[in-house]
Amino acid sequence: MSIFTERLKSEIKRNGILQKDFLNQMNLNINSIGDWAKRGNIPNGEVVQKIADYFNVTTDWLTGKSQFRTIQEMSQCFSSWEYSGIDNFNPPFDFCSLLKPLREELNVSTVEMGYVIGLTKEQYELCEDGFEPITQAQAEDLCKFLETNIEQVLYENGQYILDEDIPYEEQGDIKGYLQRKHEAEEADREWDVRQSQQSPEQKRLQLIARHLEDVPEEDRERLISSFESTIDIYLRAKGLTGNNK
């Protein structure tokens, strides 16, 4: 049975109509679907278009060239992507082509790649050749299968443009680098909030502590000890300790 007849039958069932009633409405022979299935072929373009219009699906989906039933589904595919690269790069259509060198290096077939995201060999090859788009979720599944990630693939192919130079030792883990950078920025923001909520006395103590970090280690312990002794004397003089001998 061809993909065309499989999908046609699924649409007939999905819409809750009888096969003979559908064929009658299309002015087709009662044995048409059986003949197409037996021969593994599809009708002429005019008939395919008529059937596609009837079910409000695309002809490419009916004939197995696309994984998206409707134009709306394809639009959702494009909106699923969060990444944008340089000019003339369209992630939904172009991402699989970026994976091809790694796929070949790992000796992974297009059959295996298609299986990961629920496509046939032919459908995946259309994606790899840039004729059929994939969703970001599918790209993530493919990357996981090849033990990489979207950010790394885009960066290594000059498509992930960052506003800074990445240290050499971080270039093998762009996703991790970006995550650590994000966490550091969050920590800085939290620090700024805490700082804005501190009293003047707390800020002065923090300033002293920060300056101590610049003092050589051999002098630091001596200064800390001297500072603690001074504080202890002050507290005793004010009667603020339990030990004011």
Can you tell me about this structure?
By secondary structure, the protein is mainly α. It has 4 domains: 3-65, 434 Repressor (Amino-terminal Domain) (Orthogonal Bundle); 77-156, Orthogonal Bundle (434 Repressor (Amino-terminal Domain)); 167-197; 200-237. Helix content is 63%, strand content 0%. It has helices at 3-14, 19-25, 32-39, 45-55, 59-62, 71-79, 91-105, 110-116, 121-128, 136-145, 150-156, 174-196, 200-212, 217-237. Helix 1 packs antiparallel against helix 3 (32-39) and helix 8 crosses helix 9 (121-128). The longest helix has 23 residues, at 174-196. The chain starts with a helix and ends in an 8-residue tail after the last helix. The mean pLDDT is 84.
The rounded Rg comes to 33 Å
Q: Helix and strand succession?
A: HHHHHHHHHHHHHH
Strand content: under 5%
Low-confidence stretches: none
Task: Describe the secondary structure blueprint for this structure.
Elements: H1 3-14, H2 19-25, H3 32-39, H4 45-55, H5 59-62, H6 71-79, H7 91-105, H8 110-116, H9 121-128, H10 136-145, H11 150-156, H12 174-196, H13 200-212, H14 217-237
Annotation keywords:
single chain, 245 residues, mainly alpha, 434 Repressor (Amino-terminal Domain), 63% helix, 0% strand, elongated
Structure, briefly:
This protein is an all-alpha fold. It contains 14 helices and no strands. It folds into four domains: 3-65, 434 Repressor (Amino-terminal Domain), CATH 1.10.260; 77-156, lambda repressor-like DNA-binding domains (434 Repressor (Amino-terminal Domain), Orthogonal Bundle), CATH 1.10.260; 167-197; 200-237.
